[in-house]
Amino acid sequence: IEILYFSSITERAIARHEVREIEQRHTVDGPRQDVTLDEEDDVVIIYNRVPKTASTSFTNIAYDLCAKNKYHVLHINTTKNNPVMSLQDQVRFVKNVTSWKEMKPGFYHGHISYLDFAKFGVKKKPIYINVIRDPIERLVSYYYFLRFGDDYRPGLRRRKQGDKK
Question: Which CATH code fits 36-148?
């Protein structure tokens, strides 16, 4: 228990330190001046994908259009596809999204939970979007997905796949 408690205290201390770094970059004087982006180029859209809501199709459209429309697409892959991040990972994520000028404008996608950038002192927050689907249609899609797989990784054996009969 003492090790877990110490780990939790350490994680919170590191997170507070990193949040202070973010706050210093976003002071009254504005963001850092090393690279300045136009307002329209300083945009990040985060598509926090909900499974079985046509998210793969929607993401493929983003990849198809990115070169023509001059934006970057980035897949956010969290540890073991766990959508919830630790406080330390949240701080790192906020830091990366706000300071990675080379990936702006950007469309970031992945199975992640909503993260309130304002609580980290960020003034220029990303835009969150999502696609939803009728719950019954989503369940039917999930059933066929588990039973027959998909076209993107046809040989992949999923844990919940079970008997195909």
Answer: 3.40.50.300
